[in-house]
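Folds abound. Consider this:
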Amino acid sequence: MIPRVLCWLALAAGVAGAQIPGMFPWWDSPLVRDLKLTPEQHRQVRETVRQSRPRLLQQRAELETAEGELADLLNEEQVDAAKAGEAIERVIAARSELARAVSQMSLKLRLILTVEQWRLLQERRRRPPGAPPGVTPGPRPYVPPERPAPLPEHQDL
């Protein structure tokens, strides 16, 4: 049973460190100048972000609550595998809802941009800072996660 808990811990740690696609706030960066948005596009972008913000904040808070509850359960001296499994499902559901909210906002923002603006945005997001146009990073090297501290000896869960 302990190897199963270790697998869940490893999965939870990997998911917790994962970055949600679409979270780059390009509308608040200097990059927005290069896109040459029209005044109407600026207005639509601001309105889309304004309308999306409450849902994003709510989903982020729900995720943080679910992650906190899972951490509390995993930090108990005697881990209840059933409760921890349910908490993991709540974390996964909260992550999914946050990703859905971000993706829906990203779609709305994409529909505001022209094809050329979208392509420029994608190119600039992939380019390392200070690199000339056309230079994109290669694949990132694998960096193994830090080893967690060994679990204390437990009775059979």
Q: What stands out?
A: The chain has a mean pLDDT of 77.
